[in-house]
Every structure is written in C-alpha cells, then in structure tokens.
Design brief:
Radius of gyration: 14 Å
Strand content: 35-45%
Helix content: 10-25%
Shape: globular
Oligomer: single chain
Order of helices and strands: EHEEEHEEE
C-alpha cells in the first residue's frame, strides 16, 4: 500500500553541499544516513531536492526531482573514499540511485526558512 493512497510517494531531501549536487548530476545517487532515514524509505518512488542557501538563484526551493532506481546500504567511506578521516566514515548510509534529474515545472519555494531533514510528500 502506498503512503498517500493513490498518489505516488516522494521524499523531499536536502542538498546543502555542491559536492553532493555534483554527485547527483553526474553519478545519479544521493546518500541518506541510516540512523535518520524515514522508516518508509523504500516505499518512496521519487526524490525531490530542496536546495539550501549555497545555490544562489535556486536556493531555498525544491527545483528538481528524480525517479528512484535502487536503494542499497553502504558505509560512508565506501561512498566518499576521499573523506576517510570524516567522523562518520564508518556509519551506514542508504545509497539511493536515481534516474536523471528533472526540473519541476514550477519550483516550490520555502515560504519560511526552517531546518529540515526529510519531508514525505507525493509526486503529485
């Protein structure tokens, strides 16, 4: 059963580093810490991406989305081997592989700034 009746489950995720954005664009995956991931993660069929203040004209809005292809578990050091000394290098993450990023027809701006991690929603 879907989370939202007949709607297509989507998860809004935060992108707050240019490196993570480049990984999304070129390698088509996003990482989510297992310890903070939504329990229903594998039910989401799409990820949408909220871009923070570092993204200039696209900041503080959901501008893009992508269809989820596969979800696997990896240690952070496997995902980002050049960050081996990171304090969470051994932590488990979900590696969410996605198809090509698509622009939303109408971006969804944040009407008020707040700290978010994930927002369950629907593609519709």
């Amino acid at each position: 059963m879907h989370l939202y009746g007949r709607e297509t489950p989507a998860l809004v995720a935060v992108v707050n580093r240019h490196r993570d954005w480049n990984i999304l664009l070129t390698q088509h995956w996003y990482r989510i810490p297992v310890r903070t991931a939504p329990a229903e993660l594998k039910q989401f069929r799409y990820l949408a991406f909220y871009q923070t203040g570092i993204f200039g004209a696209e900041r503080w809005a959901v501008n893009y989305y992508a269809k989820v292809k596969r979800v696997s578990r990896k240690r952070r050091i496997e995902l980002l081997p050049d960050e081996a000394s990171h304090p969470r290098a051994e932590d488990l993450y979900y590696r969410v592989e996605v198809e090509e990023l698509l622009p939303l027809p109408r971006p969804i701006p944040s009407l008020r700034l707040r700290r978010i991690v994930f927002i369950p929603s629907s593609l519709e």
